[in-house]
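Shipment paperwork, digital attachment
Item: protein structure file
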Amino acid sequence: EAQPDVVEAEHPLEAPREGAIVVRDLEFSRDGRKVLDGVDLEIPAGASVAIVGAVGSGKSTLAALLPRLLPTPKGAVFLDGKDVTDLELRSLRRAVGYAQQEPFLFSTTVERNIALALPDPDAPDARERVREAAREAAIEAEIDALPDGFDTFVGERGVKLSGGQKQRISLARALLNKPSVIVLDDPLSAVDARTEKQILEALDRAGEGRTLVLVTHRVAAARRADEIVVLAGGRVVERGTHETLSRKEGGVYATLAKRQRLELELESL
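Attachment content:
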């Protein structure tokens, strides 16, 4: 008898596949608290944008609203000029790949976890498609090194894998259907410096020819984007390139960049 929060449109449309995103005056509340307040955002097809902000700024909520993982308000989010609330959910989520901060892995094989989005994971070409996605996410070699390779059971919630491995498997899963838009929610939150480098290189490859929306608190990742959008209190407070925002004395992003630079210097001592 329960009613889902996210429902299919009465006459759903096929999702377009160019990858341009427009967000207009987006407001969203949760448990009586306004999480996003009048967010405007425009991302051309093939461009990359980093969404930066403190915990509770609304950046993860914004990311989840793009593929309608939360009840996106009508008239606020558009994919190639089409309101996402008018698009068929399955085709929207094929067009907009999403990898979350803490990926959920099932207690099955690595291959089955990546192949989750395939209509038929037992199709003759399924293994090659899974391997191609793993290669693009820079995790293929590490999977091959596991005891049974792609047939290795990962345990409940992926307990047998490291945080970085789980995040790259989640990235591979998001890349599997070759989406035109990739939304990544803090993919560097649980990794060391070496794995961070691997993931950043994977993101560069994943973003080629695609629109990339990267939610992150790491300047090393944000600086690679075409544009950086800074959220605070659910509103856009700064936007620009890494170079421009870094020079803004007392700015939110400049303060974050300075702090992380000092942390790296201290770690190297």
